[in-house]
Design a protein that fits this description.
By secondary structure, the chain is α/β, with parallel strands linked by helices. It contains 19 helices and 24 strands. The strands form four sheets. The chain has an eight-stranded antiparallel β-sheet with strand order 3-2-4-1-10-9-11-14, covered by helices on one side. It has a six-stranded antiparallel β-sheet with strand order 5-6-7-8-12-13, with helices on one face. It has a five-stranded parallel β-sheet with strand order 16-15-17-18-19, with helices on both faces. Bound molecules: 5-amino-5-deoxy-1-O-phosphono-D-mannitol. The site of 5-amino-5-deoxy-1-O-phosphono-D-mannitol (M6R) has 15 residues, from helix 9 and helix 17.
Length: 626
């Protein structure tokens, strides 16, 4: 949830760390802080509640005395868990003797016990955070390690000792004023990657923090401690055994993580969708339709043995899974269940080695999804990840991965990741169908051809968004907006409502249109906006008829209907107060076009209400706590 940066090199660390934090602010923005060790061995910290801008203002006002000179530093942008978003609780946290500064992402589950022990020893706490325990423990371990002559190695050993006492999920970074030039990091169940430069090295929650300096990176495994200095990187497990991290090259550059003239990252990411979909399809299949998985540890025989598919995911990625269920069951005839990752393992699902669990996650770090996949693996199920983030934990722990090539998604609200996840799910469904012999290569090829037309169709939708923006501004004062859909339009309705809730802070609900009469229709009042996602009359005529009836039902009760239908669907026109046409598309692929107006509408309503579209309140991009 929090963003973490560390730098050890030959240039002033402050700007590098603050720039890195700017790129990681999407991960949390309740407070921000830095700690820099200068050449004199002084450790200086500065931290402020609120967004990074507050910290930058404080740094400018202070003239950054002491901070500007140091070439070793750490920085943190916080999504609060233990302790409110105040200056005091902002990271870094220092040990009582002021010797070390620590930043942390995650939750230390045994912090209450550790805190009680430390307080019994006379340590006075200055914050309500769990992190502060780690700072005091680290200083205590450093105090015991008098035999070490190399200060950097001493810091790494102290961190290993601390980690062995911690429970829960954590990424920790620390600096020690007696070890200038060294930053130590540790990870368990929380992300941390290393950036490898020339005479300088980096640590960060994700590569976007250092992408402008280096595209060479190292993935760290579970329960590892990493020490960076200007000269090198060394990695061990928590007991000091050296381990090799996995090196990788980042295939996008810094400009991909910038706004490029747009008002918000979200607006840019919405516009990038045609390209993102095209990139996700690129090079994915041979002429006879065989799918290329990025990293395959599943054989065709494994896939033929699958007798049940479970999709686990959260939020928008869960909505992807709901759409995927329709496609996978239709194409493969294998039963497919979709579960919220946070519920999955607690329900004790029936899994075995012939179950395929598909874990969908943009970030690859969502703790609920990670825990669901671990549970699946314990039950011997095979796990396939659909993910956007190279080097993240979920693909690393899965048996196979299919990356969505949509580039970095910075805005908290997921847009291009959703569309590309859909594409990845379609590819998985088609591949399963082909391997199992329920679809012939020419049938798979026909769907792939339809998919290849989707980037142009999405572009057509984007080119016609002005009336939607106008309508959105008009809806900005609505108390509540309802969304209805049928078949794959139902998850699209849920996604439309989620976008509106998270961006506009407005009451919004999505319903299966058929459920209206079982309760939700009572919500309709004079003027209530109801967004209706209409299935194609060509593909699923019966569903189209039924939703037209549903639209009439809500309209008869005073609803203001906003209808999303495919071009040429005249049946809905008489009942639509606002009609948004999207290009004709095969039913199962329709979410790739029907979702787009809902994204644009939510973004525009949020802007009209004066909200921060990229960083909605109370949220974070990567949810690394359960
Ligand atoms: O990184 P993930 O795809 O695992 O994230 C899952 C959800 O937290 C995420 O989709 C969230 O719902 C979005 N912010 C919604 O726009």
């Amino acid at each position: 949830m929090c963003g973490i940066v560390g730098y050890a090199g030959c240039r002033p660390a402050l700007n590098i760390v603050v720039d890195g934090l700017r790129r990681l602010e999407y991960r949390g923005y309740d407070s921000a802080g830095v700690a820099i060790v200068d050449g004199e061995g002084d450790l200086v910290t500065e931290k402020r509640a609120g967004k990074l801008a507050n910290l930058e203002k404080a740094l400018a006002e202070d003239g950054a005395t002491g901070l500007a000179a140091g070439m070793t530093g750490i920085g943190h942008t916080r999504w609060a868990t233990h302790g409110g978003p105040t200056d005091r609780n902002a990271h870094p946290h220092r040990s009582a003797d002021g010797r070390v500064a620590v930043i942390h992402n995650g939750i230390l589950e045994n912090f209450a016990r550790l805190r009680a022990e430390l307080e019994a020893e006379g340590v006075e706490f200055t914050s309500e955070t769990d992190t502060e325990c780690a700072a005091h423990l680290l200083a205590a371990e450093l105090g015991h390690l008098t035999e070490h002559t190399d200060p950097a190695e001493r810091l790494a050993e102290a961190m290993r000792r601390v980690c062995r006492r911690l429970e829960g999920a954590f990424t920790l970074l620390a600096v020690d004023n007696l070890a200038p030039g060294a930053v130590v990091g540790a990870r368990r169940n929380s992300p941390l990657v290393v950036g490898c430069g020339e005479g300088e090295n980096y640590l960060a929650s994700d590569v976007s923090a250092f992408i402008e300096h280096t595209r060479d990176a190292i993935e760290l495994g579970q329960d590892q401690v990493v020490l960076i200095t200007p000269e090198g990187v060394s990695v061990t497990d928590f007991h000091g055994t050296p381990v090799e991290g996995t090196r990788f090259h980042i295939d996008w550059d810094a400009s991909a993580a910038e706004k490029g003239g747009y008002d918000s990252f979200m607006a840019k990411e919405i516009d990038e969708q045609p390209q993102a979909v095209a990139d996700t399809l690129l090079g994915r299949h041979t002429e006879n339709g065989d799918l290329t998985l990025d990293e395959v540890r599943l054989t065709d025989q494994d896939l033929r043995d699958v007798d049940k598919v479970f999709i686990v995911a959260c939020g928008t990625s869960f909505h992807t899974g709901m759409v995927a269920k329709y496609a996978i069951e239709h194409w493969t005839r294998i039963p497919c269940e979709v579960e919220l990752a946070s519920e999955f393992r607690y329900r004790d699902p029936v899994l075995d080695r012939s179950t395929l669990v598909v874990a969908i996650s943009q970030s690859g770090e969502t703790m609920d999804t990670l825990m669901a996949l671990r549970h699946a693996k314990e039950q011997k199920a095979r796990v396939l990840a659909i993910c956007n983030t190279n080097g993240s934990t979920i693909p690393r722990e899965s048996d196979a991965v299919l990356y969505t090539h949509c580039g970095p998604e910075i805005a908290v609200a997921s847009t291009k990741a959703f569309l590309t996840q859909l594409v990845a799910c379609y590819l998985v469904g088609l591949h399963l169908a082909q391997v199992r012999g329920v679809m012939y290569a020419d049938e798979v090829g026909a769907v792939l051809a339809q998919l290849s037309e989707m980037p142009a169709k999405i572009q057509t939708v984007l080119d016609a968004m002005e009336p939607v923006r106008e309508l959105a501004r008009d809806l900005a004062d609505a108390k509540s907006v309802l969304f209805i859909g049928r078949h794959v339009g139902y998850p699209v309705a849920l996604e439309g409502a989620l976008k509106l809730k998270e961006l506009a802070y407005m009451h919004a609900e999505g319903f299966a249109a058929g459920e209206l009469k079982h309760g939700p229709i009572a919500l309709i009042d004079e003027g209530t906006p109801v967004v209706c996602v209409v299935p194609s009359a060509r593909g699923r005529g019966v569903l189209n008829d039924k939703i037209v009836s549903n639209i009439q039902e809500v309209r008869a009760r005073g609803a203001r209907t906003i209808v999303i239908a495919e071009e040429g669907d005249d049946a809905v026109a008489p009942y639509a107060d606002h009609l948004i046409y999207v290009p004709r598309t095969p039913t199962l692929l329709a979410p790739l076009v029907t979702t787009v107006p809902l994204q644009v509408m939510a973004g525009e309503i949020a802007t009209a209400r004066g909200n921060d579209v990229d960083q909605p309140r109370n949220l974070a991009k990567s949810v690394t706590v359960e």
